[in-house]
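Annex B, item 7. Sequence and structure tokens for protein A, then protein B.
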Amino acid sequence: MFAVCVLILVLNALFCVECNPSPVGDVVVERYSTPAACPREVKNGDHVRYHYNVTLLDGKTFDSSHQKGIPKVGLIGEGRLIAGIEKGIVGMCINERRKVTVPSHLAYGAAGAGDVVPPDATLVFDLHLLDLWNNADMVVTKTISTPKDCRRSIKRTDFARYHFNGTLLDGTLFDSSYAREQTHDSLVGEGWLIKGLDEGLLGMCVGEIRTVVIPPFKGYGEKGLGQEVPSQATLIYSILLVDIHNAKDNITVENQVVPESCTRKSVVGDYMRYHYNGTFLNGVTFDTSYQRNTTYNTYIGMGYVITGMDQGLLDVCVGETRRVIIPPHLAYGEQGAGKDIPGSAVLVFDVDIIDFHNPKDNITVEIVFKPEICNETSDANDLIHYHYNCSLMDGTLLFASGNYENHQEALLGADKVIDGLDQGLRGMCIGEKRVVTVPPHLGHGEKGATGVPGSAVLVFELELIDLAKGVPPGYLFVWLGESPQELFDSLDMNKNKEVPEEEFGEFIKLQVAEGKGRMKPGMDPEEIIADMFKNQDRNHDGLITPDELKLKVEEDQEREAAQHTEL
């Protein structure tokens, strides 16, 4: 029977812990609103911040922090509050609401409190706990998510850009970078931030999200912050780190892929064409050349692009890809660039080098095959036929003579092809193969051409099929040796002192057939003969006489003499 009574007493004691109201040393506590989670309860030695209404038993209110607009702050267990409140607030959770009935001997006793609290009055406090901390508290961090690859974390003297939501312990939002649509940017560990943030940001990786709980003495303390942060408020920051750099940082080159064949690396003063993706450290793209379907073209090392890119594009090969990470002091600095690049942003460029050249470059010639027997080579004024493939430096084929029915034809030195190709086709033997690289200033220049990008370096694979030796500019026929001493007598084959066009034509054709002379290649022989005869038939009577006939050399000499006489 005794054991049963003891069991009943123990069960009653357990149930009374959860019942409302419950006495606590003559103090009656009624917990009428409790949070779902309560990670921490008030204990002696803690500081608390709470709202209250206090009434007498008849319901008359004689004091209220709500009416004052300022919560009460107090230290529990040190005798700084009335004894009943110190007992009644122990065990409270943040955001808990409770009624605490305090008998007079634990309140103001027989003396009362002036005209406000009569003697021997029982007081009823309606409490709402807003904040709780202890002088032994430290900054508490909790990582919510972290990137898989964290190559660098925040250290003291680093500069960080981060987004945050800042709340009080009761969940009240007091500040948010998201609402401003702008990151908070600050030096870490140098006193630019409250002490708790200086500590709480250390060790964070870009892309990491963490919660930082900061006690008041490492936050805004007794002064608070305007109307947003009250005095002695514990702060909770939910932080997303966007990027990080240090004033001592230089550019970083990563993910470098260099082609096996690299005969030349870029230097200051080169003009480069490259594609790029521009992102921030968090992976967000701010610009890309691929969307515009055109390369970015610029001189490098000369200040035409941001300093970090000027450095990052030096010593690269055509066909190389690399990632260049640029701190803001080598990019767009504190000001940023327009709406796309915020101030103090670290930039990441993934670049693909398409080609580069120097304005001082000439063509380069690589002989792939040369026949053992080479009796003559191509030169200015020669008419040639050749095969070709024309590509960009990255191997993109632009044009090929194989796509046409006939071989490609060109009269060298006559502006029939681009200057670089004209040069590259000279000095070739029939059957020779060569690769000629043409810089844009000897190609299609900055504007490019149909199918050819502006400022593109072109690569020609050439094979000379045949050539017809030419004549100097302005000439239709040249002697391959000495001309006959008595030229008219040679022309006047029937010796009648006059030469008609037919007789003239037969003579010229004979000289070509016997290898004594050469007509201008690429023109109809009959047209050449007609033009030559017309030039010599000075009175236009259809006949050439001895006094009319002159070699072109003689005509040129007479013309020069006349010009000197006029001078």
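Protein B:
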Amino acid sequence: MVGKVLGIKDLEQFSSRRSSVYVDPECDKFFELPLFIAASSNDITTKCQCFQFSPGKEPALRSYTEIQQLLQQGKKRDVKNILRENSWPINSPIRSQLWPMLCGQHQTKEHMLDGFYWEMVHQVFGTTELSEKPIMLPAFVDATHCLPYHLTSTGRAVADRIVNVLGYDCPDITYSPVLYPITSILLHFMSEEEAYVCLAGLVGSKEKVFINQTKLQHEVTWKTVMQIAKKHTKSATSYFQRICPGLKLERVFMDWCWWILAGLPFQHLVRIMDCYFHEGIKVLYRVALVILNLFHKECQSNNEWSPDNIKNDIGNALIKFCKKIPVSPAKLLHAAFSIRGLSTQYISRIFIKTEMLLKSRSVLTSGSKQLIKSRSSDNLPTSQSQVNIQMMSHTLTIREKLHSESCRNLLFTLWSWLPVRITMYQPVLLYTTEEHGCSLTTFYVRVEQHEPTLLMIKTCNNEVFGAYCSSRWFERNVKDDKGQRQAYFGTGETFLFSLYPERAKYPWVGIEGDKDLGHSSELFMAADSKMITIGGGEGQAIWMDENIRFGKTDSCKTFNNPPLCPSGDFEIRVLEVYGFVGI
């Protein structure tokens, strides 16, 4: 169905250009008028001024059925190209089917059955009737950016309700300022229930990132955009830094998403969403870079954006510029997708490196390795998971006489060091020598297909240390082009840690800069039928024998760590390996 886009007499001429209109009768009781149309006919011009059509013959556009068939055939690249190239009119009925289908491909929740949303509404509010009283929004919503995009008061109440239900169903969301604006956009083209299902798909996506859900994710994202901009819009970023020598670029890039969501005209937003719902947040990255370049050019040729006029508030000037951006949606997207060297893999590397650097700096003070409160403490294991781990774990207890609070503190310390996206999932014990025996073969059977894993060792001297291993242990069997098994595998997300008697994290040395540190700095993980190794280069950070009984620890170049226990050699009392549910 198509959402309540048009259909009142004052807009008959505009409405007649639509190919078809499908109105969900069940939604009429919520929306007496189209969602983005003002209640008063006097406001119609103001509310609809952004929707303009060029006269003449419209280009041939691909249909929903064609795109649906391509998705069913797994031809996602073809779908990507179609979405980028087809500029459907803003009032095209295709989006009422297209957007739910695009968002639905990311859905991971098995329980999202018909009627689920309304059951949740009744559970949260006690009724499915829309209250006339204002609804208190969840804490993760940024009240200053609840952008309604011309929704009526009823439409805004529906958006409030959707966001509340999503917060109830997804308690791991602790900070997500863009969630409300995206909800408002969705409601232009679909029913309340469909909008909720779309959002659930975006929030729950595992393959791609769409919506940040914690403060740390939010911070890592804008810093990633800043790092990419320094390389791909070097002239623009240098110009802004030069005209405002006292300005920190961080202040500008912190609001990067609002250049798009709060600045761009609605028809630009809708076309961006066509691509965003399929490709993810990287679409917004690209658009932000184009905005920077366009603004830079305007600053050099238009007195309105002269240095004297913008130097005191470049961030606000950027949003004002976007409101009257001098290019069409098609040209904006064409420029965005013409940027070279901005692959998903490249963006992911910058994101991971930024996240690792941010977390290492927030967890450890310079030089002293003293623990401070982590920025990701808003994502902790559920209380039930904490109980389960404390009951199962023989490494976190250190000594049986320690209070459970000590176990909990160690768990929280370790949790604060994990990559932020991993903290969205709950830990599960995959292997322990206490229950599954001391055999490397059993270790591989129970662990090798899981990614990532957390190895925790408790020695007979009660030292506790381990490693976060970013890749599957099965990769020890992967062969190169010559048919030979690779000696080392893993990524720069891998890190070492010590929990007792000292608490310290030892991240990959590569996060400290772009300098090429050589092959020895990338010896993350190695394994065969006789041993397991983590870290290398002039020593092995952790080495264990095939019986998981004896091991040794040295300094190594990959992590620049000291030996994780004073003696260097150790006897294993307990080895535990944790995975994460749902990854």
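Comment on protein B: Strands lie at 427-432, 453-459, 464-469, 495-500, 504-506, 525-527, 531-534, 542-545, 550-552, 569-580.
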